[in-house]
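Let us work through a complete example step by step.
Step 1: write down the sequence.
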Amino acid sequence: MINVFQPSLGTEELAAVSEVFESGWLGHGPRTKAFEAAFAEHLGVQPEGVIFLSSCTAGLFISTELLDLGEDDEVVLPSVSFVAAANAVAATGARPVFCDVDPRTLNPRRSDVESAITDRTKGVLLLHYGGYPGEITEIAEMCRERGIPLIEDSACAVASSVDGRVAGSFGDMAMWSFDAMKILSTGDGGMLHVRDPELARRARRLAYHGLEQSSGFAKARVSHRWWELDVRDFARRVIGNDLTAAIGQVQLRRMPEFVQRRKEIVDCYDAELADVDGLVLPPPLPAGHESSYYFYWVQMAASIRDQVAADLYEAGVYTTFRYPPLHRVPAYGAPAELELPGVDHASDTTLCLPLHQGLDDSEVREVVTQVRKAVESRS
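Step 2: predict the structure and record it as tokens.
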């Protein structure tokens, strides 16, 4: 089966893990700090506000906690988004309010976000779909004008940018995913960036039991009783560790080659699938936009999409749709009469094709061949 996602790990990562084993320290320590610093440099931000976590989901939950939301508050997010984003909002007692997206880019436009804002809106939680930045510049400007905190879910956008500015650095908070399906993978893991220094300090506490110091080694420098507790928040333990951070540092160094290979595959799909009747390819990136190329999505008539997916599966090509509309999930309590035509069109017509740096040229050609065959036979 040609997979949709697949990490690229090898001897360099194994060597880094071996060094951690030899050090005798696997937990949160110097390699975690080094990974945070390296990722901060990649972002162009201060390392004090960058926190390595056990998952991107942990970053989403911490970010919504930092907003101090209550049951009368609302957070706007696109309906085409990962379930963890809506869960992070709902878990605070606040109400997730779902907005529409552009049916081609699957990213929300400024007008989509703006139309969902009310006097109860206490935050906007924006996804960069498939690594494409979308209208992040315009939405960030609108949030600043209105005084609304902006959270960037950059799980898919580890190498995306607009005019040289990295996705995840436009808002007040952002998080990235390093799970087993991502471009930069540590198996599980994520990074959180918090712009405000005081909120960043609180985020670190929330990531480690609410303690002011995450290690007795650090506390020993200022107290002869370093084992005593200083609890500032009631929290859980979701910090990263040196074992996965060591893998992350290697992956971060290799990331440019990963993204370049993904772009080569995207360019091939664009060229080879452009003339397939009934198949719509992703729109071109606007000037100044750089993508991480996490998804490659095609669109076709809703009447054949599921059949095409089944045909490709039988031919050994795995496809999927990310992400099922959240406003259709009863648990989130979206009004039954809510109409999001862009979301509905995208979710009924879109299919994500295999895209990862491990694909070789023969596999890419096989995907092209099978997509052509499936769409043409069903049209």
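Step 3: interpret the result. The longest strand covers residues 121-127.
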